User: Which sequence fits this backbone?
C-alpha cells in the first residue's frame, strides 16, 4: 500500500485547509499590533473607531477561517482513512491463504480499524496543526524581534530549554506508542480467540482462567497506555514552565525599561501579547508532534500488514459462460473432457515434513460422484486446496475441464468450482443473502432448484420469514445439518463443473444423509462431485473411490473392489468409515 499515493489523492483538500489555517493565523498575528495602535490612540486621545472595527473584523475572519480549516482537514483525514481501509481490505481479501493463515485475526482487526484511525491523525490533523502552529511561532518570533530583540533573546532562552525537553518527550511518546499498539493487538487477538470458542470455554469450565488471561493482556495494554499518557501529559507542563519563567522575566525587565523610557508601553503590551500568543502554538506543535509520533507507529503497523503476499491479479471471468458450464457444458462432456486431472503433483506446506502430496496422478471424468478416503493427514483436504488454487503445487500439473489451472484467471477457475467446507461457514444475514452469496443475480427459479437439490425446501418454508429469515453469527438459527445443506445449495446455485464436498455428511442425521446421497447422484449426472467422506454409506454409493495415505494415491476403485483388494480401505471401512445411523 503506497501511503504517499493515498495522501496525494487528497493533497488539494489538505492544501486548501492548511492555507485557510495559515490565513487564520495571519489574522491572529495582526491583532496585537492593532491592540497596540488602540492603546496608542487612547493615549493620544484620537479616534478609536478604526482600530476597534479592524480588530473586530480580524476576530470574525479568524473564527471563519479556523472553522473552515478544521472542517476541511477533518474531511481530508476521513477520506484518507477510507482509502487506507479500502486498500487494506482489498489486499487482505486477495491475499494468499498461506500468508493470511499466519496472521492473528485479532491483530488484523486492530490494524485495520484502530491503527488506520491513528494514521489519519498523523497524516492529516497533526501535520496541519504542526504547519499552522509552526507558522504562528515563526510569525510571533519575527514580530517580537521587530518590537525588541533583547526581550526576544530572554524569551528564546527560556522557551528553548523547554522545547528541547519537549522534543525528548516526543521521541519517548513514539516508543511507548509502538508498545501500546502491540499490547492492544495482543489483547484483541486473545479476546477474539476466546469469543470464537465460547461454547468450548463454557463447557470446559474455563471462564475464570480465560478471564484472568484476558485481564493480564488488558493490564499490559493499560500499562503501556498509561505510559503514553504520562509522557504526553508532560509535554504541556514542560512548555508552561518555560512560558511562565519567560513571562516573569519579560514583565519584570520590560516594566523597568518602560519606566526609564527605553521601551514604549504599547510595544511592551504588544510583546507580552505575542508571548501569550506564542505559548499555545508551541504547546500545540509539540502535542501534535507527539500525536504524529503515535500515528507513525500505527502507519508502520498498517504498512507491514499491507505487504501481505497477494494472489495473482487477473482479469475477471465471464460469469455466464463459466457458471453455466456445470449445467450446459454437455459438449465438453460429449467430447470426453476430464473434469479434474492431477499429473505427478507434489506439494508441501512450508516448514512441514513430510510432503502433503507426493507424486499424485489421477483423472476424473466430467460427471459422476468420486469419494476420497484416507487416514488423517493423508492429503485429502490438500487436494481441494490445490484444485481451488489456494496453494500452488511445488511440482506437477493440475487441469480443470482440460485447462491448466495455473493459466486460468482465478475468477474463471473458481467460477467453475463449487466448494462446501466441513464447518459450512455461513455469515450473519438472511438465508437468501447466504444462499446467493456466490451468485447475487440468481433468479427465483434457480434458487428453487438449488433448495430442492439440497432438500431444504421444507426447512425454508418452516422458517418465520422464509428466505428472508435472519441468521446469527455462523448461521445461528439453523441446525448443523441445515447449515451444511444451505452451504451445498449455495455451491449448487453457481452450476459448477466440479463440486467439492469436504466431509459434508458429518453433521447429518440418517434421513438427511439419505436424501443428500440421492441429491448427489442427481447432481453427479451434470458435473463431477468430489467428496471427502468418513461414512461407509457415502463411499459405498460413489461411482469411484480414491484411497489416500501418506500423501500418495494408494488405491482406486469401487467399494466392492477395494474391500477385496486394499487392506487400508478395509481397515478404514471397519474403523473410520462410520455406518449410517451411528456416530
Assistant:
Amino acid at each position: 500500500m503506497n501511503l504517499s499515493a493515498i495522501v496525494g489523492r487528497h493533497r488539494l483538500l489538505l492544501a486548501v485547509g492548511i492555507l485557510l489555517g495559515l490565513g487564520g493565523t495571519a489574522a491572529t498575528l495582526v491583532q496585537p499590533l492593532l491592540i497596540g495602535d488602540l492603546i496608542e490612540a487612547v493615549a493620544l486621545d484620537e479616534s478609536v473607531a478604526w482600530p476597534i472595527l479592524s480588530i473586530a473584523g480580524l476576530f470574525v475572519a479568524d473564527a471563519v477561517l479556523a472553522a473552515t480549516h478544521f472542517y476541511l482537514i477533518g474531511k481530508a483525514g476521513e477520506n484518507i482513512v477510507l482509502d487506507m481501509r479500502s486498500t487494506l481490505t482489498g489486499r487482505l481479501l486477495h491475499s494468499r491463504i498461506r500468508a493470511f493463515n499466519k496472521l492473528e485475526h485479532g491483530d488484523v482487526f486492530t490494524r485495520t480499524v484502530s491503527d488506520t484511525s491513528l494514521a489519519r491523525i498523523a497524516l492529516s490533523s497533526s501535520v496541519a496543526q504542526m504547519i499552522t502552529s509552526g507558522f504562528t511561532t515563526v510569525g510571533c518570533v519575527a514580530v517580537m524581534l521587530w518590537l525588541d530583540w533583547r526581550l526576544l533573546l530572554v524569551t528564546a532562552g527560556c522557551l528553548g530549554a523547554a522545547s528541547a525537553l519537549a522534543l525528548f518527550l516526543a521521541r519517548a511518546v513514539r516508543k511507548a506508542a509502538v508498545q501500546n499498539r502491540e499490547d492492544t493487538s495482543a489483547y484483541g487477538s486473545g479476546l477474539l480467540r476466546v469469543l470464537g470458542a465460547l461454547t468450548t470455554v463454557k463447557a470446559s469450565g474455563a471462564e475464570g482462567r480465560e478471564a484472568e488471561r484476558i485481564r493480564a493482556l488488558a493490564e499490559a495494554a493499560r500499562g503501556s497506555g498509561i505510559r503514553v499518557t504520562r509522557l504526553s501529559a508532560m509535554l504541556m507542563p514542560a512548555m508552561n514552565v518555560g512560558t511562565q519563567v519567560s513571562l516573569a522575566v519579560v514583565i519584570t525587565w520590560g516594566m523597568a525599561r518602560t519606566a526609564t523610557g527605553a521601551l514604549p508601553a504599547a510595544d511592551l503590551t504588544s510583546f507580552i501579547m505575542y508571548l501569550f500568543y506564542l505559548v499555545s502554538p508551541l504547546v500545540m506543535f509539540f502535542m501534535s508532534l507527539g500525536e504524529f509520533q503515535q500515528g507513525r507507529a500505527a502507519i508502520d503497523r498498517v504498512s507491514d500488514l499491507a505487504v501481505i503476499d497477494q494472489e495473482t491479479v487477473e482479469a475477471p471471468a465471464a460469469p455466464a459462460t463459466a457458471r453455466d458450464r456445470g449445467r450446459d457444458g454437455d459438449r465438453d462432456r460429449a467430447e470426453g473432457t476430464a473434469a479434474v486431472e492431477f499429473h505427478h503433483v507434489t506439494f508441501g506446506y512450508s516448514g512441514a515434513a513430510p510432503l502433503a502430496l507426493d507424486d499424485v496422478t489421477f483423472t476424473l471424468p466430467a460427471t459422476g460422484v468420486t469419494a476420497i478416503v484416507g487416514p488423517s493427514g493423508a492429503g485429502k483436504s490438500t487436494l481441494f486446496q490445490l484444485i481451488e488454487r489456494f496453494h500452488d503445487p511445488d511440482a506437477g500439473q493440475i487441469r480443470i475441464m482440460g485447462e491448466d489451472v495455473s493459466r486460468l484467471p482465478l475468477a474463471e477457475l473458481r467460477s467453475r468450482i463449487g466448494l462446501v467446507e466441513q464447518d459450512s461457514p455461513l455469515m450473519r444475514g438472511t438465508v437468501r443473502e447466504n444462499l446467493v452469496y456466490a451468485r447475487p443475480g440468481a433468479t427465483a427459479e434457480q434458487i428453487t432448484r438449488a433448495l430442492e437439490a439440497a432438500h431444504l425446501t421444507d426447512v425454508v418454508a418452516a422458517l418465520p420469514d422464509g428466505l428472508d429469515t435472519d441468521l446469527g453469527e455462523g448461521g445461528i438459527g439453523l441446525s448443523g445439518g441445515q447449515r451444511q445443506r444451505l452451504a451445498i445449495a449455495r455451491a449448487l446455485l453457481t452450476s459448477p463443473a466440479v463440486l467439492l464436498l469436504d466431509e459434508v455428511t458429518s453433521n447429518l442425521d440418517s434421513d438427511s444423509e439419505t436424501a443428500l446421497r440421492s441429491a448427489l447422484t442427481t447432481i453427479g449426472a451434470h458435473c463431477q462431485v468430489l467428496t471427502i467422506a468418513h461414512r461407509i454409506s457415502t463411499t459405498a454409493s460413489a461411482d469411484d473411490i480414491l484411497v489416500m495415505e501418506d500423501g500418495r494415491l494408494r488405491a482406486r476403485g469401487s467399494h466392492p473392489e477395494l474391500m477385496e483388494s486394499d487392506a487400508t480401505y478395509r481397515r478404514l471401512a471397519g474403523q473410520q468409515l462410520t455406518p449410517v445411523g451411528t456416530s
Notes: Residues 88 and 306 are 6 Å apart (CA to CA).
